[in-house]
Batch of 4 targets.
Target 1
Amino acid sequence: MRLFATLLVVVLGVVVAASCGNNKKKQEEVEAHLEAARRSFLDHDRAIGELDKAIELDDACIEAYEQRAEIYEADYRQTGRAQEASKAIGDYDTLMKLEPKSPKAAERLRKRAWLKAELGEHDGAIADLNASRKRDSGDWRTYEQLAKASIATDNLENAIKAYSLAVKCDPSNASLYKARARVYFDLGDKRKAIPDLVKVTELQPDLRAYAELAWIYRELGDPHKALDYYDKAKKLDPDFESNVTPW
């Protein structure tokens, strides 16, 4: 019995050692493909081929999915091909399944939301952005994307709320005030657009903001303020025409 037990321990030890050896070899192969992909970052097709091989060896390889998603997204931005965006979304889906509580989850959700919005999947984008803000409520980019997705679904009130949250996260971002002013204008509330446009000009001289303020005050029957903003616009651009309409 002791002899049998000894033999069993020896056999198990050999099996475990072989398994560890195989795992180590596989991991080395995975790392080799990842390194080859890093070196081939300018050759997207080759890099993707290396990443595919890494995933074949280890279908839970986070870095491979991350790199491949970024390449697909870059290819989409360059070519506009919907299939590239869909592939990137697929990799972000996998990453969220593998690491739902990762510190990178909020960013991955935001990136996936942008891709979905690009493909016209605005409801899916909004769902991802709401999930992203639960993980990280301090990123103005999430709220800006949420505002744009809300505009795309004709929910202007929600767009205002989203831009307001974005402004709280980044109160010195002039583009956010300008975008919210545009939504107020589209809602037919010119007066509410005024403080945002004034804030834009306080942050930086802005020809378009001066022009929009001049137009709004002219429409509201205040020619003196309209002329004041017209003069400010003229100082920035001597060729500025007073008949320019906002947006």
Target 2
Amino acid sequence: MRPFTYHRPSDPAEAARLAAAHPGARFIAGGTNLLDLMKLQIETPGNLIDVNRLGLDRIEDTDEGGLRIGALVRNTDLAADQRIRRDYAVLARALLSGASAQLRNKATTAGNLLQRTRCSYFYDTTKPCNRRTPGLGCAAIGGFNRGHAIMGTSEALKANASPEKLGLSLASLASAVLLGIGGARWLSDQVDKNLLRATAADAANKPGSPDKAKQIMAATPAKALQIAKEM
């Protein structure tokens, strides 16, 4: 592992200033993925910014009836929360199936979501990987690629697979998520549109529900999810 400078800010503003002052710096919380990449020298940041003291570790009810999940909520705490287990069981199941208890105790919501898309060749530094080093080549094109993404690929990149399950389950719920210090944003406008179309199509195929399909298409993602639950 290469030498690096370690910073431990006490609030989000200080963390943002440090990141701006040190281009290429990486935020670290649980470190369950980043430290592995640093040991392999796939990631070689000169500065690490520890965000564990920023207070972003709460799960809060929103006025719209949803939940706001803090970036630093540990996977164990998220999976065990009674509101998650009751209303968003797919999240709990995804987290419990995705890692060991030791990893879940350290891994955070934001760290889970912000992992780089990759395949097994990404970790193998003896094989070319355009995701790891642009222009080096893609071993997956002529190698093992079963289960890789079928969309979003190119001649230079065969794999665009997500390494975690939390983001996929959130996308299936058309959720708004809190990413890092920057604030809330939708996972992807296009993803949300596709989810709404798929939900509407499913509703249209059910007896006596064409009106529900129209309501879903016109609704916000949160409202669309509510309508789908009531069907």
Target 3
Amino acid sequence: MTEREQLGTRGGAFPADVGLMVRKAGGEVDVVPLQSARLSVFDAAVPWRDFRWYRGQRHFSGSYWSATMQSHVGYESRLEYANLLLADFDPRVDWILSQPFLLEGEDKGTRRRHIPDYLIVHADQTVCVVDVKPAAKLTIPKVRDSLSWSRRVIEPHGWEYRVQSEPDEVLLRNVEFLAGYRRPFQFADGDVTGALGELRSPMAFGEAVRAIPAVAGGLLAARALVLHLLWARRLSTDLTRLLSATSGPPPSFGPVAVRVVGFQLMGALPSVVDRCEVSER
């Protein structure tokens, strides 16, 4: 039995009647007690609800191509999209499933049914169940009670439970821009290796780009490659500050990393990146 398969309870008291329902690609539904749930139950899982688009729709649904999953992951609001994007950028995340299951059980005489927004598995095999809610709605009694019940029944299973709201605006803008360069199949492995071999000392971003045109096949391709390496965390920068031509140096980082000092964001479209540094991590 694998480590992933062995994940189970780690303390806490289990409500005995809490059930977990997982929809499969063929349309059938698996029903298991939460206390018996293992990650293998999600091997052929699909989102519990269909993602729909229609005229006059009040919320913003969509499908995002995830670099982590190498396939599309659905979302039902712009806020879900923002948190999905940040999860895809997180190097600790190994697997993402949207609307992973329907949770059903008793809560002090009230029958509750709840569908979390995401199930995330990290590279160390720890599991996180995520609900995404606007911060302004977290004090609404119906929302608060539903999320509180979800936490009480999920955490005793050894899975982390997290409620996420609006992310930092600067971080989101930076990551959303870098996501344009997230697709690894657009960059040859040899180009990535060659670029990292050239970028071994502190330099301006323009210098980094000009150092690898022979590797990448031209200046525009070199710029895209450097930005891809930033997305892939092979290069790094301080993303808590809006990247601009006047940004100061970021804090110290760690493996080989080009650290961008700044590039200009013009709405969703950037101008040329201004400066960066390279350091060993």
Target 4
Amino acid sequence: MSIDRKYTDSNRINIKKVAPGKFRKVYTVAEMSSKHHEIARLLVLGMTNIDIAKQMDVTPMMVSNVKNSPVVQEQIKFLSAKKDAEVIKLSERIAKALPKCVDYLTGTIDDEEISDSLKSRNAFGLLAAGGHGPTKNVNVRGAHAILTAKDIQEIREQAADIGVSNGFVIDGDNP
């Protein structure tokens, strides 16, 4: 693979030891090309080096070298901060729209012109958003159980009773 000298700096070539007595050159990026920008963007999106290499038709080593370059790491930090800011803005927009969405879905449940299927989906969606969704599969170290919200509440109550009776938990009603 040839190295484009325009985007590398001979002062930034690191020699990394691979095995006793053997070395390899690792090039770091001095100036970002469009390919380097794309690698940084895909890294911020959470793709692995191997997936990026396949998608861009480059070697995983090139992706790694680009990823570990200080210039690209600065770009990755910038892109990550930008992405985080966009996520926060989106979260704020969702929080503002949530009451309207709940009102709308609640209204559809009472609307006679809406199909029962759509009413059911909306009702289940509202219940799930309120923490009262359908039963969930719980896998814990090989154990398998299907628990409803009522089952979980009973388990909590039993655990609290055991904790109080063994003196691990102080019952707030009985000093």
